[in-house]
Specification:
InterPro entries: CheY-like_superfamily (IPR011006), NreC/VraR/RcsB-like_REC (IPR058245), Sig_transdc_resp-reg_C-effctor (IPR016032), Sig_transdc_resp-reg_receiver (IPR001789), Tscrpt_reg_LuxR_C (IPR000792), WalR-like (IPR039420). It comes from Actinorugispora endophytica. This is LuxR family two component transcriptional regulator. The chain is α/β, with parallel strands linked by helices. The chain folds into two domains: about 130 residues, Response regulator (Rossmann fold, 3-Layer(aba) Sandwich); about 80 residues, Rossmann fold, CATH 3.40.50.2300. Helices cover about 55% and strands about 15% of the residues. The protein has eleven helices and six strands. The chain has a six-stranded parallel β-sheet, sandwiched between helices. The longest helix has 15 residues. The protein is globular, with a radius of gyration of 17 Å.
């Protein structure tokens, strides 16, 4: 059972999200919050698998709540609900350690798939969000893109061939079990490789590693 704390300042949105999630027998919404501070307290109380957070909320917003949850409650992953008008918040959520990004206006099946991927230890970038992240990364012009790409390649070149292979699959959003099945190795071995990749790249989680893989040209947004 995947246990979820849901936070959005709009009651109707929360009701809709709860209805979508409750329709899946493998998901339980254990708490609802109208702001980031309340979400953090609910995470403290329930220790859910995932906190599903809106970005813009009054008081403590989703970015501050993300940072508080990922630093204080490492057993709880954060998935961000975003819209096309909130690109500027994505970088902050990445820095805060969010493990997934899904569009509020997306397909409900995508929301559930994203939550399952994150609960399985993977990362999830809605395809539309992934493309917008890459567009945002490239917004500073050709020179900026080349500089970031060269820096990313320099970092990923330090990885072993197997670690680069694992990084490419991480960037596809695959969980450890899925990577293990793809490569024909044990899930425990994948876990070791992923930990090594994150440490050697100096990133906090799989989403940050995926973005670095995109910049290095090891993979493309889905």
């Amino acid at each position: 059972m995947i246990r979820i704390v849901l936070a959005d300042d709009e009651r109707m949105v929360r009701a809709g999200m709860r209805a979508i999630l409750s329709a899946d027998p493998g998901i339980e919404v254990v708490g609802e919050a109208a702001d980031g501070a309340e979400a953090v307290e609910l995470v403290r109380e329930h220790r859910p698998d995932i906190a599903l957070l809106d970005v813009q909320m009054p008081g403590t917003d989703g970015l501050a709540a993300t940072a508080a949850i990922t630093s204080g409650f490492p057993g709880t992953a954060v998935v961000i609900l975003t819209t096309f008008s909130e690109d500027a918040y994505i970088a902050g959520a990445l820095s805060g350690g969010a493990s997934g990004f899904v569009l509020k206006t997306g397909d409900p099946r995508e929301l559930v798939a994203g939550l399952r991927a994150v609960a399985d230890g993977g990362a999830y970038l809605s395809p539309e969000v992934a493309h917008r992240i890459i567009a945002e990364l490239g917004a500073t012009g050709t020179a900026g893109r080349m500089s970031r790409g060269a820096a990313a390649r320099e970092r990923t070149d330090r990885l072993s061939a197997r670690e680069r292979q694992v990084l490419g699959l991480v960037s596809e959003g695959l969980s450890n079990d899925e990577i293990a099945a793809r490569l024909g190795i044990a899930p425990g071995t994948v876990k070791v490789h992923v930990g090594s990749v994150l440490t050697r790249l100096g990133v906090r989680n799989r989403v940050q590693a995926a973005v670095l893989a995109y910049e290095a040209g090891l993979s493309s947004p889905r």
